[in-house]
Amino acid sequence: MSLDGKVAIVTGAAQGIGQTIATSLARDGADVVVMDLDVARCKETIDAIEKEGRRALALPVNVAEWDSVKTNMDQALKEWGHIDILVNNAGITRDGLLMRMKEDDWNAVLQVNLNGTFHCTKACLSSMSKQRSGRIINIASIVGAIGNVGQANYAASKAAVIGFTKTVAREYASRTVTVNAVAPGFIDTAMTQGLTQDVKDALLNQIPLRRLGTPADVAAAVCFLASDVAGYMTGQVLHVNGGMHMA
Questions:
Q1: Which of 3, 59, 152, 154 is catalytic?
Q2: What is the reported pLDDT for 52?
Q3: Catalytic residue at 232?
Q4: Which of 52, 104, 110, 167 allows an S-S link to 26, with CB 3.0 to 4.6 Å?
């Protein structure tokens, strides 16, 4: 699954799953543009990419704002000439039961998770269309498929990302731009590490493989979809959840 000569953009890549995705793409041969709100936080990701012998570029992007996205996508094109892979990973949560959910928390999650995916996809499609090749991978969630108590905003945003993925896949298949999604289940990150043992045990009882996923599990699916091996796949959702949800 060589990505030699490819340029990848990963949003929200300063830490967590995004950082692992960016590093994994570099390990497979891609040069990586790391987009995040705070480029100072991207140093660890940049160092990891460069240790793989690949070029790295950090750009300060607020995916919720079109002007920020467009300016920095244009900068990436100016620096490296082409964009071959886009991973829409940036996302936030603002959890709460629906009756208590503030409108600002609803809007913030939709603005980043859904509108951010729209902004970044739109900003790179012209370039990909002209070169008649491209890979767009959107990070959705198991919650977008099955829902979750206290996450109406997050679930709505991720379900919408899945619908968005399928539509853009149909629109740009004729340009050989594939658009797919990866829907992680419960992944062992800083957020899940903060859960109580009782909550963790309850989660594990719902997962046939009896373990939480790792960022590397998600990154492996992304790298597959970014490669030529997945060239005949578009509009698909890869569920990486240990069997918790079987679509």
A1: 154
A2: 97
A3: no
A4: 52
